[in-house]
Specification:
By secondary structure, the chain is mainly β. The protein has one helix at residues 288-291, and strands at 6-13, 18-25, 50-52, 59-61, 73-78, 81-86, 91-95, 100-104, 115-120, 123-128, 130-131, 133-134, 137-138, 142-147, 157-162, 180-189, 196-203, 212-218, 223-224, 234-241, 247-252, 260-264, 279-283, 296-306, 309-321, 327-343, 346-359, 362-367. The protein has one domain: Neuraminidase, CATH 2.120.10. The strands form six sheets. Strands 11, 16, 17, 18, 19, 20, 21, 22 and 23 form a nine-stranded mixed β-sheet that branches. A five-stranded mixed β-sheet has the order 3-27-26-25-24, with no helix packed on it. It is globular, with a radius of gyration of 21 Å. It holds the Pfam family DUF1668.
Amino acid sequence: MSFRRFVNLVASDCAKNNYTLRRIDMSRFFLPTKDGSGRSLLGLDPPPVEDCRLPDATMNFDPPQRVDSHDKMDFMLLKNKVVATNENGHAVMYDPDMPAFHHLPLSFAKHKYLPISIAVGNNLYILDRQTSFNNGNSCRSFEALVYRPLIPHEHGWEWRTLPPMPPPRFARNDGDRDRTCVTSLAAVQGGRRRGTHIWVSAMGGGAAADGACTYSFDTRKRVWSNPADWSLPFCGVAEYVPELQKLWFSISSRDQGSVLCASDLAAASFSQEHCRPPVLHEVFDDDVAGSHKGWRLLTSHAVHLGSGKFCIARFFDRSSPNIHRFELWDDCIVFAGVEVLSCDGKLHMVKHRSERYMFLDEELHVVL
């Protein structure tokens, strides 16, 4: 599999009220695995984290300046292209490799408070993380950006409204208390006849606020399955890596959501007679807390770069009192290159270089 060289970092500029997109070159993060004489260098301690300067922005995005707008934009990745949307439903597709912009049709039949997306083939599926229900009906929409080359306008792209996720079994239809939160997504191939299914785990809602369940959405038939009483064992979106024992990789939902994990989703089942949760195959410990003492971990992201290589991006903050006894918050993001190898039927993680970037008058928005 080819190596993806760049990871996109989007931050919001607090001073200018816009968004900056930077590209982190991951090719320099991975060290040689053998020395000049052919001896293996694996298993050695990785070099310490280096403090580096953020690269210059390759693109700025300005939201519309309106009284009734919060100036919020959302960014999603479709293959190597960035899809940017605003609160008014306008959308563009940015290709940083060209670079070039493509205008897209008006998006989002309903505004999404915290969108989460997953790419399936040439299509991008978008769901709101925060979903509320009223009399059993979802108040948030589920949509897809679909490519149809025969469409004469908008370069063949169109938005399609899809059936919303049904309310979980534990949801109570009594206003705010029946809100649920989407915690994780994964695309699972069901074979040539069954097509691809999107698995969605959600939790919360009413009296069983700590409950969780998982649905499967059939992208071909456009229907949802009955929920299974288990949740996916990771946070965010998992990526399928067939060369690594046909497993899905993401950030573990355990261990404070900080470490890379591998899951066997193929072993899971939604059958009422033989309902089986997915197997957490491996959790890779890379001593996050010990490496960044004094910092508080906020979020973690795992991006598969190809050939078993991953970028692990972790966002931290740290408070420090100034002379006026207010707290100044230092924010930083640490990018780490790690490599997962399959040897003798077992998975091994190799830690490569790490770089830390400080934010000045900006805050992290998303890593793509």
